[in-house]
Specification:
Elements lengths: L5 E6 L4 H9 L4 H9 L1 E6 L9 H7 L3 H4 L7 E2 L6 E2 L12 H6 L4 E4 L11 E5 L11 E3 L3 H9 L15 H28 L4 E6 L1 H9 L12 H7 L2 H18 L5 E5 L3 E4 L7 H7 L24 H9 L1 H9 L3 H12 L10 E3 L6 E5 L15 H13 L11 E6 H4 L11 E5 L7 E4 L3 E4 L9 E4 L1 E7 L6 E2 L13 H8 L19 H4 L7
Parallel strand pairs: 1-8, 1-9, 2-19, 5-6, 5-8
Antiparallel strand pairs: 2-18, 3-4, 6-7, 9-18, 10-17, 11-12, 12-14, 13-14, 15-16
């Protein structure tokens, strides 16, 4: 049994290209030093299914086909024509640190997304400062979270309904709150770690997640919402928040300088460009919706007739601030149940052959399959052929003026992510060519469609690739930007940690230990499979 200790820090949605750039420029001295000393690489994640899939894959070492978490805000429920809000107890596998706990390790976790309290041998803090909560604010021991809230207060964006601000003053206020929250997070962690030494700690920063979504347009001159005056007023908010986290990481490391350190992100972040607001009409023009949508004069505004963008329509009518006030008055479980039913009203899914379902940045399509959906229209014998036909039709979409392809890939998620929860995933995932703000598309079968920019208040969106950085005993110095490392995935994080501690990797895990970053002493444990 290994007697090593480890501190793991998750920087939510930190973009590796920015991290590498700012490390090289000297803005992030802690991360730059760790990168010079240890092993650095980029890692792929399943954000094509949803950003909500990424943390369960890290925590459980499996792909979405086994943990079943897709677009958890409004996840389509197999065997119905409805959507629900998924919570942490819906994850189809246990997190890897329960295995460490069973081996007698003392554990500390804080704000790890898509998790709950498990009653481990150690300390758990759930929901103090998550970008999106999937569990009640809770802790182990039970009284700890009340003490934290009494002494440090709530996270400054706790309960805040994410809005697109209209003034520089409002944006500055959000930036200042996030900078303050990053510091408070470290203060809480340091206080807990000062009381005892943990064998394994996992602390996640939600502040970087907020920053990427909200501030992407501030420093991106190519973004349609870029405003040089706003940039002048705000400076570089994403960089400032990264710098605050960099400083905090050093403070956390100083609490146990002998521990091995892991720092990673679940996804990257980039401009929120997508063609998902076209998918419903494309399917309609191709004849897969309940009524075939005929070609018409190009539209310059409007949304699909389906319910995928119901949230955005309601926000526009009611107002985001008003929704925030109403939500604060209603118990969470009642809010979740009532709003999901309301948002699903008027859906024509049961009458379609194929239909678009809610998602993050990709287009997600469900086949109305006989034997799986209550009123299925497509025979299982025709399923594969139909999936390939729809994929080909989406791959044919181009920009009418330039002829550039708009779809980079169509993923058959049940083939890519098999498992006992694969039916919870969309059948087809449409991935768009990166870096293109899609407002028009055409193909011989579909004709031309024009729409406004993606109706999303967030200007930054999750990207496929995050990063992984490891420093300490048993870890080689190797840089994935210059050395030829094997391709790695975020579900490889869990088995890598288990093997590092000398514990067997469960046979059910999809992930594999990252052997290429480990020294010979750790490599010798490759036969440890449960």
């Amino acid at each position: 049994m290994s007697d090593k200790r480890m501190i793991a820090i998750g920087l939510e949605a930190v973009e590796p290209t920015l991290l590498e750039k700012w490390c090289n420029e000297g803005h992030l001295p802690t991360l730059a030093r760790l990168r010079e000393q240890g092993a650095y690489r980029r890692i792929w994640g399943p954000s094509e299914i949803s950003s909500s899939s990424t943390w369960p894959s890290i925590n459980c070492g499996v792909t979405p086909g086994k943990h079943g978490m897709a677009f958890i805000h409004r996840q389509f429920t197999s065997g119905t024509y409805s959507t629900v809000r998924k919570r942490a107890n819906d994850v189809g596998r246990d997190p890897f640190w329960l295995q460490l706990n069973e081996a007698g390790k003392r554990i500390f976790t804080m704000d790890v997304p898509e998790t709950r309290t498990y009653g481990i041998n150690g300390v758990e803090v759930v929901g103090w400062g998550l970008e999106y909560k999937t569990w009640k604010v809770d802790s182990t021991p039970k009284g700890l979270i009340q003490d934290i809230l009494k002494r440090y207060g709530n996270h400054p964006l706790d309960g805040w309904y994410q809005t697109k601000e209209s003034t520089a003053e409002a944006w500055l206020d959000i930036k200042d709150k996030l900078l303050g929250a990053a510091k408070t997070r470290v203060d809480i962690v340091k206080e807990i770690m000062a009381k005892e030494q943990f064998d394994f700690s996992l602390i996640a920063y939600g502040e970087t997640h907020f920053a990427g979504h909200l501030f992407w347009h501030i420093n991106d001159p190519q973004h349609p919402e870029y405003d040089p005056e706003l940039e002048k007023a705000l400076g570089q908010p994403i960089l400032e928040i990264y710098k605050a986290c960099d400083k905090g990481i050093q403070e956390i490391i100083d609490m146990d300088p002998e521990a091995t350190v892991l720092v990673f992100s679940n996804t990257g972040m980039g401009p929120n460009y997508s063609g998902r607001h076209f998918v419903g009409e494309v399917l309609g023009r191709l004849g897969y919706r309940a009524e075939k949508v005929e070609r018409e004069a190009p539209k310059t505004s409007g949304l699909p007739a389906g319910d995928v963008f119901a949230v955005e329509r309601i926000e526009k009518i009611v107002g985001q601030r008003n929704i925030e006030k109403i939500k604060s008055l209603i118990p969470e479980k009642i809010w979740d149940t009532v709003t999901r039913k309301f948002l699903n009203m008027g859906s024509d899914w049961k009458d379609c052959m194929a239909f678009d379902i809610p998602s993050d940045n990709t287009g997600t399509i469900r086949i109305n399959l006989k034997g799986r959906e209550p009123k299925g229209k497509v025979d299982p014998a025709d399923y594969d052929e139909l999936c390939e036909k729809i994929a080909e039709q989406f791959r044919a979409l181009t920009h009418p003026e330039t002829g550039e392809k708009l779809v980079s890939e169509v993923v058959r998620s049940h083939l890519k992510y098999p498992g006992d929860h694969s039916a919870d995933l969309p059948d087809l995932v449409i991935k768009w060519v990166p870096g293109k703000d899609i407002t028009v598309m055409t193909s011989p079968e579909v004709g031309e469609i024009r729409r406004d920019h993606l109706p999303d208040a967030r200007t930054g969106a999750h990207q496929d690739v995050g990063f992984f950085l490891a420093v300490g005993e048993g870890i080689r110095h190797i840089d994935g930007q210059t050395d030829n490392l094997e391709q790695a995935y975020n579900w490889d994080v869990a088995p890598t940690i288990l093997q590092y501690f000398g514990l067997p990797v469960p046979a059910d895990m999809d992930g594999k230990p990252m052997q290429d970053i480990m020294d010979e002493a750790v490599d010798a444990r490759t036969d440890l499979v449960a």
